[in-house]
Amino acid sequence: MSRPRIVIVGAGFAGYQAARGLSRLVRHEADVTLLNPTDYFLYLPLLPQVAAGLLEPRRVTVSLSGTLPHVRLVLGEADSVDLDGRTVHYTDPEGGAGRLEYDRLVLAVGSVNKLLPIPGVAEHAHGFRGLPEALYLRDHVTRQVELAAAAHDPKSCAARCTFVVVGAGYTGTEVAAHGQMYTDAQVRKHPLREGMLPRWMLLDIAPRVLPEMDERLSRTADRVLRQRGVDVRMGTSVKEATHDGVLLTDGEFVETRTLVWCVGVRPDPLVESTGQPLERGRLVVDPYLQVPGRDGVFACGDAAAVPDLNNPGTYTPMTAQHAWRHGKVVARNVAASLGFGERRTYRHRDLGFVVDLGGTKAAANPLGVPLPGPLAGAVTRGYHLAAMPGNRVRVAADWLLDAVLPRQAVQLGLVRSWSVPLDTASPELARVPGGSEPAKNQPGGEPAKNQPAGEPTGPTEPPGPVRRTDTPAEGDS
pLDDT value at position 370? Predict the structure, then answer.
């Protein structure tokens, strides 16, 4: 008799943890297959540090094949799920079509950038959900400061060294905090025109920074940002984005070449193809993380609306902390459905939150205890090292080197503006010339336009306009 086939779609926080748990629980009794576009798990909370040149990109990626024994890795992007036929259809990295048949299915496809109907944002902003976007932002910010330093026109210089971040949640706050430190370090050795300094703006319609956190932590983050020189504007957002800058909701026009979009996330569009009931785009599941009426189908992470048993009538938020624990529970319940152990409902206890603000600064309340000053910074970095499933020594080494050596500010030129559009169902993949957006992102399966306008910063970019991050999952999952 053939062994049961378990297919896990997505290797984010939930999918990775589910695969790791199942590799231990069912080891030689079932075939576990993990379908993912990349061969690594991305530790998303440290992505702002990649964009700021503090960590090298490989530090925040963990090899799937190297850390998931007894799990078969299939590289590809899921296009659709046939629940009646118990089949997942996907496209491999070279454009070939494939399919995976399953007896048990775990949908852990995560989330993508959340779009709002604001004119110009899709064309001129960039998100922050994947490694390509972080690499692009690091190159772009570095280039803008270098071009500003060489500019003869004060107006052009000011626009190039003005950076606008929309969204004051986890990711947006960390991007602005680390970004300000990065550009300040750049101009120490190569000053801009007299009287000019890099300017970072953090916008949000919420009344305070980090509105989802305790007010004391919010005040801490706000104070650190303002002390660094970040222009924090609450109750303000973008009304329109153009090639030359952004029009704010208060009527001010800010000239800039950089718009970073961190307003939140939305579930991956793949879940819509299942035809199952959704809750704000998330697949409805029961407390055991199983899709009602679909035997053997489970969902977890940002793609699933998981009932919050501690707060009846609500669902667990889209955070990395929940996704990580969803993965553990779904692994146990899938194994239980095959006769290994007993299943259990998903219940959680708030472990607190940590937000790295760069240097020794952080906002943290582990287990609900607010921490002050450098202690918060130490706890925050200690938490990340403990949570990472690999690369701990390398990450710690990069932090140590950053404390004693100047940060390198160079352009690698690996990711172009047009290859990381904001409106994409695949933020983990950079778009390539001649490629097209996966069909799951398009109504009726129509392919998206291949190349949004590029960035006018040099002859190597496609002609057109400029520009273009939310945590331990806002999904900053």
Answer: 87
- Which are the contacts of 295, defined by CB distance < 8 A and separation ≥ 6? none
Q: Where are the alpha helices (DSSP H) in 11-46?
A: 13-25
DSSP-assigned letter for residue 270: G
What are phi and psi for residue 138, nearest 5 degrees? -65, -45
Confidence band (pLDDT; 50, 70, 90) for 193? Answer: confident
Closest residue by Cα to residue 348 from 370, 319, 382: 319
What's the one-letter identity of residue 152? H
pLDDT value of position 432: 79
| Residue that is written with structure tokens 């899921």 in the block | 78
Q: Partners of 234 in the beta sheet?
A: 204
Identify the pLDDT of residue 151. 87
Q: Is 321 in contact with 351 (CB distance < 8 Å)?
A: yes
Q: How far apart are CA 17 and CA 327, in angstroms?
A: 5
Taking each continuous run of H as one helix and of E as one strand, the counts in the chain are: 11, 24
Pairwise CA distance, residues 253 & 239, whole Å: 10
Whether the predicted pLDDT of 142 surpasses 90: yes
Spell out where 183-281 has E strands: 199-204, 231-234, 238-241, 245-248, 253-255, 258-261, 265-267, 278-279
Distances (CA, A) of 176 to 8, 48, 307, 400: 35, 9, 33, 22
What distance separates the 2 farthest-apart alpha carbons in the chain?
77
- In the numeric block, which tokens belong to residue 278? 């959704």
Mean pLDDT of 298-311: 96
Alpha-carbon distances, residue 322 vs 53, 303, 308, 326 (angstroms): 28, 12, 11, 6
CB 69 within 8 A of CB 23: yes
pTM here is 0.88
Q: How confident is the model at residue 471 (pLDDT cuts 50, 70, 90)?
A: very low
Average pLDDT of the chain, as a whole number? 89
Considering 57-61, 149-153, 429-433, the range whose residues carry the highest mean pLDDT is 57-61
Cα gap 299→14, rounded to integer Å: 9
CB 178 within 8 A of CB 49: yes
The CA distance from 161 to 148, in Å, is 6
Contact (Cβ atoms closer than 8 angstroms) between residue 284 and residue 291: yes
